[in-house]
Amino acid sequence: MRRLIFVSLLILACHKPAEKPAAPASTTAPAPPATATTAAAPAHSAEDVLGIAQGAIVVRAPSSIGSGHLAMLMFDEDKNTHYTTPDDQPNGEVTVVQLAERSTIDQLQFDTGTDLGLDTHAPKEVRVEMSDTSPDAGFKQIADVTLAMQKDDQLFPADGSVAGRFVKITFVSNYGGPITDFPEIRAFGKKLTATPLANLTGSYNATDYGTLNLKEEGAQISGCLSWAEGKSFIGGLEGHVLRFTYETDVDKGPAILAFSTDGKTFAGGYWKTNGVEDHPPMTPLLGTRASDTPANCPGSAKQEMATSLEKEKRLRLYGINFDSDSDHLRDESKPTLDLVANILKEHADWKLTIEGHTDSTSTPEHNQQLSDARANAVKSYLTTAGIDATRLTPKGLGATQPIASNDSALGRAANRRVEVVRE
Question: Does the reported pTM lie above 0.85?
Answer without folding.
Answer: no
